[in-house]
Amino acid sequence: MNVHLSYAECPARERLQRIVDPGSFHEWLPPAERLTSPHLAALGVPSSFDDGVAIGRATLAGRPVFVAAQEGRFMGGGVGEVHGAKLAGLLRRALRDRPHAVVLLAESGGVRLHEANAGLIAVSEVMRALLDVRAAGVPVVVLIGGANGCFGGMGIVARCADRVVMSDVGRLAMSGPEVIEASHGVDEFDARDRALVWRTTGGKHRWLTGDCDALVEDDVEAFRAAAIASLDASAPVTLETLEAEHALLAARLALLADVSHEDDAVALWSRLGVADAARVGDLDVDELRALRPA
Amino acid sequence: MKDDIAMNWNTLATALFGADHALRQDGDLLSGTATFDDQPLAVIGTTNHASIGVRLALAQARAVLDAIARHPGRPILLLIDTQGQQLRRRDELLGINRAMAHLGMTIDLARRRGHRVLGLVYDQALSGGFITSGLVADACDALPEAEIRVMRIPAMARVTKLPETLLARLSQSNPVFAPGVDNYVAMGGVRRLWRGDLRAALREALREAPREDRRAQDGAARGGRRLAAAVVQRVLDAA
């Protein structure tokens, strides 16, 4: 029925159109309204009529949802003032209108440096608005599979959501490998070592550690199916859930206390109970799915 | 640089709570219970321009969770001095973004459960170290001599490949990218600066800080962030 279409290679708007029900996406503040960043213009940097993010309402499996998609091809999906306000506005509207879910197709290097202060504040406004929506029982689902990954402030935002879906080529982290290499040298993190980058930030790693809730192929249809499966994934935040999260993260930190730099990813997976941890790099998505410890 | 005149945490704590304050430093972590106007106040923070890695994010989250569990409703003061997120591969492997999200979510939960949560940037606040502390509190204030930034202009010029002279010139009139606590006030990210009587400033903050997120409106009213509030409203009103 469907020809395989790479999620990573799709532009944001096309991705969005294909994730939701055909023809159901209704965009708010579309490019025709020419809502651009005045800060980029002041710097003489090309701007975009949507400031790098499309937002609106749609249906998913017939149910009303709000959606947003960041365009990695524009400023790496960086969050500026307008971009961030569109995301925050969508979430505020979700709090008011209560769709069945908010689906965020995240692809971002984090804060856009050209308007970094505004972007930093905006990311925190998105966080607060997202947690309001989550507290209201409307699940927020983040899809990560774009070529630019999901980094910086957006990497934090993603982990505030009810559910995270990644492909094996997706990346989720805080600081990019290049930034870490520039700061502490190539021995700390060789940004050109692709296998190391993927072991540290990639979808397979995030799946094995539970940092993402679903692992899918790099396929738009697979992401759509995972988004539909997440429609009722509301996971309220309580003191008990945060205590459990704390225990998990503290235990994970302790797991590597005695492990040196070499092969620490494999050591981590192994100590988390993954069988055949050394083979993870060679396994496909189906095989990986079966490996996650209960 | 500003580091020369920034206030030491102990000097600040002494000014706010007296010399017998019970705040303690453990490495880069600050914590303890202070008494202010005869009421207990949970104080959680960092010092030494702390680099926030998984361990320090978790240590702060632990303190917030303890305040929620053991002292329901007790106000929380976050004392902020950070150089940003720790730039280490091991932290990325361990999911530093998840640990920071966790810290932010503990603060968010504290607010929801009725704790008044205030941030105070007393020295410096950079990037990721700030997003999940002061920027998710009810409100964040700062000392006038504090420094808040994502990136200094020379580094920004290198990364963006824009002329440093252009950036320096534009930063005079536009607060959106250049370092500076006043820029954050103008954009609404910092509510106000504490000048003069620090005790009076804390008293005012505990009483007046808004519980809802008004930063975009503040930024518009102060002229430093003219679009955010209007764009949010346009999204709310869009047909």
Name the structural class of chain A: alpha/beta
Task: List segments of chain B where confidence is low: pLDDT < 50 over at least 5 consecutive residues.
Answer: none
Tell me the strand percentage band of chain A: 5-15%
Rg of chain B from C-alpha positions?
Answer: 18 Å
As a percent range, the share of strand residues of chain B is: 15-25%
Low-confidence stretches of chain A: none
End-to-end separation of chain B in angstroms reads 50 Å
What is the C-alpha radius of gyration of chain A, as a whole number of Å?
19 Å
Please give the CATH architecture of the domain at 12-172 and 212-234 in chain A.
Alpha-Beta Complex
Q: What is the total domain count of chain B?
A: 1
Q: What is the CATH superfamily classification of chain B?
A: 2-enoyl-CoA Hydratase, Chain A, domain 1
Number of helices, where a helix is a run of at least 4 consecutive DSSP H or I residues of chain A: 12
Average pLDDT number of chain A: 96
Count of individual beta strands of chain A: 7
Lay out the secondary structure.
The complex is a heterodimer of chains A (294) and B (239).
Chain A: H1 12-19, E1 26-28, H2 38-42, E2 53-60, E3 63-70, H3 81-97, E4 101-106, H4 116-135, E5 140-144, H5 152-160, E6 163-167, H6 177-184, H7 194-201, H8 203-209, E7 214-216, H9 220-229, H10 239-255, H11 264-271, H12 285-291
Parallel strand pairs in A: 3-4, 4-5, 5-6, 6-7
Antiparallel strand pairs in A: 1-2, 2-3
Chain B: H1 9-17, E1 24-26, E2 29-36, E3 39-46, E4 50-52, H2 54-70, E5 76-85, H3 89-93, H4 96-112, E6 117-126, H5 127-131, E7 139-142, E8 147-149, H6 153-160, H7 164-170, H8 181-186, H9 198-208, H10 215-222, H11 228-237
Parallel strand pairs in B: 3-5, 4-5, 5-6, 6-7, 6-8
Antiparallel strand pairs in B: 1-2, 2-3
Helix pairs in contact in B: 2-4
